[in-house]
């Protein structure tokens, strides 16, 4: 049996887990491949206009797969952490796809909701495997094996910050003298190089080292996120905020770029929080890039170049005074 996995949304977080699980059960896993112009166009044509870019791209990946496989894995994700939720678009994703994309094969729309009890994981797994086997022991074995590989992938992502290299289990050098740029955002905005126009590679090419949330110590992220007056219950929103606050606390990045999706409620809140904290607590270059389906690269390149120049100048010319009269290297006003 051929099971398709669309390379969008939480593919960037859980691909190896899902692939290993299905392959262990004897299925052949087929992926839709990297996002490209035609996938984006398919997505824009089939998806409702109001959706964010990552959801449109996901539609395009499903279009790409639909004639190549026996079924497509599109889980209905409610929660991936205890007492937290993720964006409601994930809960309605299978229904959105079924209503927008014609001529679909079978959709495996397992519900994943681990907000309350661990018991639900087992029923989710049985539901995901239902077209292949009903043998509970075999399914659980495949899951634990997949979980082990997933942990290795997560460790690799921590050190490389690169999705492809982490899949290859390659580690890069630990000591790195490049200027570091913190990248904030959802994983599908950070690791989909078509959607973000290769921002990480552009930074690397110019001698910077991008630091993604997956590279930051999880305990510190949780600790810093918990300093908010109210618990933030969106899993990825909390991670983005905790990472941003960790960058500011540890002073280990020279600038921060927030990659947000046009029309994303969670991003609109988080980017505002982050900007306020930066203004209040530490003066470092900050840039927000909003991603949508427009694919002209020149605008992004210009902003990125200006941002990189600003980061370099701050370090190279400490006595630089900004046009409005304040030192660009600190919060003090120039008088
Ligand atoms: S969190 Fe934002 S970017 Fe992600 S699916 Fe929801 S609306 Fe789209």
TrEMBL record:
Gene3D superfamilies: 3.40.50.11900
Pfam families noted in UniProt: DUF2229 (PF09989), HGD-D (PF06050)
UniProt-listed InterPro entries: CoA_activase_DUF2229, Dehydratase_Activator_Redct, FldB/FldC_alpha/beta
Domain DUF2229: 2-216
Protein name, as recorded: 2-hydroxyglutaryl-CoA dehydratase, D-component
Protein species of origin: Oxobacter pfennigii
